[in-house]
Amino acid sequence: MKIRSPIVSVLGHVDHGKTTLLDYIRGSTIADKEAGGITQHIGATEIPNDTIEEICGNFISRLTIKDLIPGLFFIDTPGHAAFTSLRKRGGALADLAVLIVDINDGFKPQTFEALNILKMYRTPFIVVANKIDMLFGWETHEGASFKESFEQQAQSVKQDLDTKVYEIVGTLHKEGFQSERFDRVSDFASQISIIPISARSGEGIIEVLAMLLGLAQEYLTEQLEINEDAPAKGTVLEIKEEVGLGLTIDSIIYDGVLRTNDEIALMTSSNEVLTTKIRSILRPLPLEEMRDSKKKFRKFDEVVAAAGIKIAAPNLDDVVSGSPLRVLSDNENVEEEILKEIEDITISTEDEGILVKADTLGSLEAIVKLLRELEIPIREADIGDVNRRDIINSSIALNENDAHGAIIAFNVNVNPNSQEDLDNSDVKLFKGDVIYQIIEDYEAWIDEMEQAKKKAFYDAIIKPAKFMSLPKLVFRQSKPAIIGIESLSGTVKQGQTLINKNGEYVGVIASMEDKGETLPSIPRGQRVAMAIKDAIVGKHFDEGDELYVDIPEKHYKFIEREFKDKLTEDEFETLHEFLEIKRKQDPDWGKFGLFE
Fold this sequence. Notes:
596 residues; alpha+beta; Rossmann fold; Elongation Factor Tu (Ef-tu), domain 3; elongated; GTP-binding; P-loop_NTPase; Probable translation initiation factor IF-2; protein biosynthesis; translation initiation factor activity
């Protein structure tokens, strides 16, 4: 058995310094060449122990690492895809992670996104608090350890830094993590280390590398054991066109050995298994980044994990990012293994629920896991753009349940031919590149719908109300009775049935008028002329009597159970009076039965 380099994923919000950190370590300028300074593609860099020792100097000499851990293998990902594209069977591809936070900006949406995914996959990580050189009054010491540089700062600067570190501690605590500045950590197994750094000046990077190697040595040696002779296992990062090579795949090999002429199995966008033969394996030199190898790529006959490689092979057109990569073997059914991996995620998961679309298998898995944790049912989950079939299926789901007429689309688009279908449907699309934001938007939409339904139901419930027949304002005695009234409580509405103080039927409100205007309802305190169908003044009630809106028993129970706290004080008093009237006739009226 051989110990491989731990795979380290660098995660964090856009522009918080992920690539700049790696640039300092490898002495390259990848960040300056990216559009807008933001990483556009996934990259991977091997940092051998010689380089780490050169950077860390005497600081690392007390760590007995060299013979155990051969180096560090960094993956640099775009903020939106951090981590989710990079997976292996049963979890995350990375053994360790660096969560980078701008010490001045704190946690941003994509920082929380990354943190929650780390939590989901239970990946050990450290927090790197970057841009300490931007603190007011900070004196830069190029390449120094954090402790050396910190000791030379003014007291006010030290206090400012500690305040900002403890803000990060507080945020992590709210998210369920115990943390502390790295030099104050008492238990590395239970506390997250926060390392303040400047990725530009290199201050604190010594401690970052030492901490990663120390954690790998202390907690991950068994996990890092590989069989150099076993068929390779890996993950596809990107599919790219390369001059002279045609379509190629950038991949991370995390176990076993890969050789030229090996037959490999990959996953296609139609969720099928493709097999192809490797024509050539290309690999950047150590410290060269896969996107920007100054000496291009060197051909290798074989590579052993952990490695970032480019593979040239035929028929790669339909391979998807995030696909598992397996070498065909006589000892195991690799195709069946990949199909099972796909089916775990992409099959219709329940008879009813929402639809989920994502850009990669890893993203899809992260979303599905999260939705299941939130107990949100999933009808179907798949990779690729939203198409006409998805919209039809969501429309069917909508007819069964309003809450299921939704599509969650992570980092994918709507097929241009399907946009009109979507516009003409009632299907709700939640689209974006931050998983947790999309799901929060969906939950907010569900909450709005629930509140709207509750409001509609509440509006339909007959609620307590009463009014007084005003003396000397009888305009007609019957057919219908027309009288002057004053509303005493609640809202009196046309069409409501009325009872008197003895609980006897009086009639139905036919209409209400004030100064020639017909009113469908009136609030407390308003005086109007009211026509009451079936009522006879002097028989069913007298001038000056109070009349009550008759509440059906079922409505009364709903009010008691669901809406009692929404009643106004006058409505509550009227409800109490109404209940007394009803229970004089039937002592059990409105009581909840044993099975209600």
